[in-house]
Design brief:
alpha/beta
Length: 485
């Protein structure tokens, strides 16, 4: 069912939309249409949402209905609005875009695009041998129904063993296998979050996690991260927990996405203690925990400080191994895992057995695979840093000692405009507002270093070229960024 934005809501989003005074003042309808395109471009107004009726919006904005009618007509002509008599008008993007299976809009052409929107590596060479070995193991599972809501025992044991090696004793009964980390988060929210409940998140944070929270109608409150290390202001973070007393807090303490920050052990312990004191459950995302660089020592898992089953940990194989292998997991108490499995049965039943067997074989070789990944990422990170220092020295970047992303502070609030301009020259970017709420973070840009070094250097060159043209640019062509992961 298509959602709808009311006139008063859209009026608040539009803010000061009126055309500027002067000899070259554009008509109010054109300014209104441009403001709506701007909301679409930075994600503050979703795609596929039904806009208010012309009369309703005119009353909310205190303008004539004729102005709204003309603005809607211009939006239809530019491909940003579709209308059907009796059904209303809903937001879209121009005809050279299509709706992807994720629900996001992506370009339908096949240009040679350097995609810096997705922070994920290509598959390792060990994947094919692991897949062949998994196919050989598959016959022993074919005699059963194939449904394993918590995951096959082999994989649960392998994941539990990985936690044991990190100093966190874990039994297979505390592990639930999922279809990726995002699926793990969704299942946790189904069980632990009630619509309208308050959830504390970092700002910036992972956009797909924010989307999952929004889909669950969470009241999201944020704790801001510093651009510099260590990132978290302990007093502010703990104070937010005490003052807001959220039902849930979603944190990424290990090479935070997108900033790359690493939360120190002392703060992890204090966060867990404070969460217990105020009745907050912690959802800890460990997607990047396996990717420390420069010999960085990763602190103990956040759950190691938990004595009251307040911490639920989610992780997976997308970042250290391959995003196409949709294997994730939840680590929680055994009773929580059983409740999660009961909730899951009404969603997707279980994860594919063959994929889980592939994961088992990859985890058997995890030490060698991850070591090669770390070496690869170090080279690519350093290439990206060098290119930025040479071509865009005005940008401020803190060197991450793990993970796969840089969080760059730009020389102005230009992130969305830069992303649109860069796409015209074959570079897809993830602008700062995608990682926050309400269209903020326009001075920031996430840059992953998961592509080959040559591609990263080429991308920076193209970005630098369009950066210096922004001040002289004509009216932009509004686009929606592709999938960010």
């Amino acid at each position: 069912m298509t959602s709808q934005v009311r006139g008063a809501q859209l009026a608040r989003l539009l803010g000061q939309w009126h055309a500027l005074p002067g000899r070259r003042r554009s008509p109010d309808y054109a300014a209104l249409a441009g403001a709506v395109r701007g909301l679409l471009a930075d994600g503050r107004l979703p795609l596929g949402v039904r806009l208010p009726a012309e009369r309703e919006l005119a009353e909310a904005l205190r303008i004539s209905r004729t102005t709204v009618t003309a603005a809607y007509r211009e939006l239809r002509e530019s491909g940003h609005l579709a209308s059907r008599r009796g059904a209303g008008s809903w937001t879209m993007l121009p005809g050279n875009h299509r709706m992807a299976s994720t629900g996001l809009w992506t370009p339908s052409d096949d240009r040679d695009m350097i995609d810096l929107g997705v922070a994920a590596l290509a598959a390792p060479p060990e994947l094919l041998p692991a897949a062949r070995a998994a196919a050989e193991d598959l016959p022993r599972y074919l005699g059963g129904a194939g449904y394993h809501p918590t995951g096959i025992s082999e994989l649960r044991e392998a994941v539990a063993h990985a936690y044991d090696e990190r100093g966190l004793p874990t039994s297979p009964e505390q592990i639930m296998v999922t279809n990726g980390t995002q699926h793990a988060l969704d299942l946790v929210l189904r069980l632990a979050h009630s619509p309208g409940g308050t959830v504390l998140v970092e700002a910036p944070s992972y956009p797909n996690a924010l989307a999952a929270l929004a889909a669950r109608r969470a009241r999201i409150t944020t704790h801001g991260l510093s651009v510099t290390e260590p990132g978290w202001d302990a007093d502010l973070l703990l104070g937010s927990l005490r003052q807001v007393r959220p039902k849930l807090a979603y944190l990424i303490p290990d090479f935070q996405n997108p900033t790359g920050h690493l939360m120190p052990a002392e703060l992890r312990e204090r966060v867990v203690a404070t969460a217990h004191a105020v009745g907050t459950d912690l959802v800890v995302d460990e997607s990047f925990v396996d990717l420390p660089l420069d010999g960085t020592v990763v602190p103990p898992p956040t759950a190691s400080f938990d004595r009251h089953s307040r911490v639920v940990t989610v992780g997976g194989m997308s970042k250290p191994f391959w995003g196409g292998l949709r294997i994730g997991w939840i680590r929680a108490s055994a009773p929580q895992v059983q409740r999660l499995a009961a909730a899951r049965v009404g969603v997707d039943m279980a994860s594919p057995v063959l994929d889980q067997l592939v994961a088992v074989h990859l985890l058997d070789e995890a030490a060698a695979i991850v070591a090669a990944r770390r070496a690869q990422l170090t080279v690519q990170r350093d290439a990206l840093l060098a290119a930025l220092a040479e071509r865009l020295p005005e940008w401020r970047v803190t060197v991450p000692h793990g993970g796969v992303t840089l969080w760059a502070e730009l020389d102005g609030p230009i992130s969305s405009a830069l992303a649109r301009a860069a796409e015209e020259v074959g570079v897809r970017l993830a602008p700062g507002p995608r990682f926050g709420l309400d269209g903020t973070l326009e001075r920031f840009l996430r840059l992953p270093f998961t592509l080959p070094a040559a591609d990263l250097v080429e991308a920076v060159g193209r970005i630098a070229a369009v950066r210096y043209d922004l001040d002289r640019a004509a009216r932009p062509r509004w686009r929606e960024p592709a999938v960010i992961a």
